[in-house]
Specification:
Blueprint: H1 8-17, H2 23-35, H3 39-50, H4 61-68, E1 79-84, H5 90-97, E2 100-105, H6 110-120, E3 141-144, H7 160-163, H8 168-179, E4 183-188, H9 199-211, E5 214-222, E6 233-241, H10 276-283, E7 292-294, E8 318-321, E9 327-328, H11 332-339, H12 351-360, H13 364-378
Parallel strand pairs: 1-2, 1-3, 3-4, 7-8
Antiparallel strand pairs: 4-6, 5-6, 8-9
């Protein structure tokens, strides 16, 4: 069920579905409402009809979006995609900007669901491990930043169901096997390259290339090379279905000049401040160059924003000169700039959850550039 904090959208959906509904009923209805007039809408309409739901009682797509969507980029759609491990919708922003239409979203974290639904007027379906691929409408491109978990040792080659069982990648593979999308874009930490002496990556590529029959390219990209004021390296997988004949893919070229954080630092922002006691006893206890301190004159990208930023870690943290105590944490708007989110993106959760969500997100401009290359490569197939 939606969290207690969720307001207008949840209240309205409850009036339509009643109180005694499961989480996925809200997902089905909100996806249908957002997709009215598209082939994917009929997929969800059939589910609602089976539950004896009167579709004629619902508002139009435009009316629904106007009432409940805070951030809905307008763009003529040329392809469909699904958003797995969606978080707060970084992949979605990037794909929509390149003409994509999201037809399915999955995210298990309730706080992230709240931010996602507030901005897109769609409740994500929950735990991917409980979703049958047949319950997902057809789509062109699969996207997702999947968590890296331990894989079984290579051992006997008995197929991905043996090698990846118990990992979240297993469920991505199941969906790809069932739905056969034209392409996929996956993201992970660069440490995956060396994880388990490279065996984990070997298994993933073996499954994608040999068993699922996709031409796959991988590359570690730094967000700072794509106009994002943050040093953030991530490993990206791009795959095309073999029968499309796209056996080579060029990742986007890096910018020559990096963008500094200074232009995004807010002037006269008072908080959240770091206490003088904490500064003396911990932050500046050593003269070792840590932590990173920024201000309006800082002409360099900041360190990687971590999901645990709120814990004020002196080695990995970046803090701002200013505020009531002379040193403060990043503001919401500064976090948006660091991750490439637009200023009008709504964050309806606590400050701690805000840091956690941005720290777990993708850098939007990087994914936007990669997805643009994917769309161009698909070209006449769209």
């Amino acid at each position: 069920m939606p969290t207690k904090e969720t307001k207008a959208l949840a209240t309205w959906l409850k009036t339509q579905l009643g109180e005694n509904r499961f989480e996925n009923d809200y997902a089905v209805l909100s996806h249908y409402l957002s997709l009215q007039g598209t082939p994917s809408a009929e997929f969800y309409a059939n589910i609602l009809r089976k539950n004896n739901f009167d579709l004629s009682s619902l508002p139009s797509k435009n009316s629904y979006k106007k009432s409940f969507s805070h951030y809905n980029p307008k763009r003529n759609t040329s392809f469909t995609f699904i958003d797995l491990f969606a978080g707060i919708g970084g992949f979605r922003l990037a794909m929509q900007r390149n003409g994509g239409e999201c037809v399915f979203t999955s995210e298990w974290d309730e706080s992230a669901q709240k931010t996602y639904s507030t901005n897109y007027a769609e409740y994500p379906f929950g735990d991917i491990t409980k979703i049958n691929p047949t319950e997902i409408p057809d789509f062109d491109i699969l996207t997702g930043g999947f968590p890296c978990q331990p894989f079984s040792s290579i051992g006997k080659r008995e197929g991905f169901e043996h090698k990846t069982q118990g990992t979240l990648f297993f469920y991505i593979a199941k969906i790809i096997k069932e739905k056969r999308p034209k392409a996929f874009l996956l993201e992970n930490v660069p440490g995956l390259v060396s994880h388990n002496e490279g065996k984990t990556l070997e298994i993933i590529l073996d499954v994608l290339r040999k068993e699922l029959k996709y031409d796959v390219s991988i590359k570690v990209l730094n967000s700072a090379d794509f106009g994002v004021p943050q040093e953030r390296k991530r490993l990206y997988f791009v795959g095309f279905r073999n029968d499309l004949g796209i056996d080579s893919f060029e990742f986007p070229k890096e910018n020559e000049k990096k963008v500094g954080i200074g232009q995004f630092v807010e002037t006269d922002a008072e908080g959240p401040s770091i206490s003088e006691h904490l500064q003396k006893s911990y932050i500046f206890k050593k003269d070792d160059g840590h932590p990173e301190i920024i201000d309006k004159d800082s002409d360099f990208p900041v360190k990687t924003l971590c999901a645990s930023y709120h814990k004020i870690q002196r080695i990995t943290g970046t803090f701002v000169r200013g505020g009531k105590t002379g040193l403060r944490l990043l503001t919401e708007q500064e976090c948006k700039a660091i991750m490439g989110f637009p200023p009008d993106f709504v964050i309806p959760v606590s400050r701690t959850q805000m840091y956690h969500q941005f720290g777990n997100s993708v850098a939007v401009p990087v994914v936007q550039k990669i997805s643009e290359q994917i769309v161009n490569a698909l070209g006449g197939d769209e």
